[in-house]
Design a protein that fits this description.
CATH class of the largest domain: Mainly Alpha
Strand content: 5-15%
CATH architecture of the largest domain: Orthogonal Bundle
Protein name: Secretory protein
Order of helices and strands: HEHHEEEHHHHHHH
Number of domains: 2
Keywords: Signal
CATH topology of the largest domain: Neutral Protease, domain 2
InterPro entries: Uncharacterised_BSP
Helix content: 40-55%
Distance between the termini: 76 Å
Shape: globular
Strand order of the largest sheet: 1-2-4-3
Number of strands: 4
CATH superfamily of the largest domain: Neutral Protease Domain 2
Radius of gyration: 20 Å
Structural class: alpha/beta
Amino acid sequence: MKLVHVATVASLVALLAAAGAGAVTFDATNTATNTSGGQRFDQDVGLDYAEQVLSDASAFIWDTFDQPSPADRRPVDAVTLVVEDIGGVAFTSGSGIHLSAQYVGGYSGDVRTEVTGVLYHETTHVWQWGLQDYGAHPGIFEGIADYVRLKAGYAPAHWVQPGQGDRWDQGYDVTARFLDYCDSLKPGFVALLNAKLKDGYSEDYFVQILGEDVQQLWQDYKAKYGG
């Protein structure tokens, strides 16, 4: 009988475990430590906490998108965060998230909770499908990212209330609230929508999933909350 070295078996088990987890790494750096915003980030948020948020957010997104296996997801090996001395709030390029130290420094309120919410939004951009169509339909992609932030419990107080907004694809909090309504009609709607976006965007996805035109759904949504 052929004997297998115990260390070899242990190594194989470790490799299989890593493969099952997707072997995604999460890393955060702060290049703005010489600014007041960068220093506030270090004091009130911290790199270790930020890396944990990237990991937690990714797991939450995989669950929201119904992607239990790495084969279901965008092929990403590493999610990174860089705190930089830039304007705006944050942006994502590929699997790299860039957070504005100026925004952190100027934020009045619980900056740790705010940064957590921003990172849930930006991490969604790392994992969502269909970003090749972002330029033509930004509202749907920003809406999905804010939907994730909403469902994770990090919607800030200044967001619109359910039923508010001018059009369904207005983006961000308006679209997030509308998608939440659509998901209430068919639990898992956002996961199904995200999966379809892999092949490009079409308004017909609402008909395919919910059986109604998106404009009718928007009218029903507005009516539910008093227009």
